[in-house]
């Protein structure tokens, strides 16, 4: 059953695809970055550079999706008082990723850059788990609302 807060199939697939691209390119970039000091350092350096370009392009697409999520999903969910904690955590997590990626790209400080990098990597690893939890809680909430008796505050027929 489709609920007003559920994303359309094409939007959901496109969003999950770009988030998967971001996660995979980030993890593989991290592995390539660790290999740069090895015997095939130049090869890993070029792989890392290519992955960073793909990751940056995916970030631009992700920003478009996040912008679309605000009126389509976040605003409606907040107004409906549904899944606020995990939704807020998702918004905060994405804000951290955006801010740290901005810092990594534009801040030239050798003192701040490692901190930005560590925070960005940590947040990037946490995002898939947080997303799964958010989806599971949202589906459980939708199921509970559709199974609520008519006339109860949770019933969709009372709104």
Domain tally: 1
Largest sheet geometry: none
- pLDDT averaged residue by residue: 89
- Shape call: elongated
What does this entry look like structurally?
Helices cover 79% and strands 0% of the residues. By secondary structure, it is an all-alpha fold. Helix 3 (84-106) runs antiparallel to helix 4 (112-147). The longest helix is centred in the middle third of the chain and has 39 residues, at 41-79. The radius of gyration is 19 Å and the shape is elongated. The two termini are 18 Å apart. The relative contact order is 0.11.
Descriptive tags:
159 residues; mainly alpha
Short précis:
79% of the residues lie in helices and 0% in strands.
Element layout with pairings:
Blueprint: H1 9-35, H2 41-79, H3 84-106, H4 112-147
Helix pairs in contact: 1-2, 1-4, 2-3, 3-4
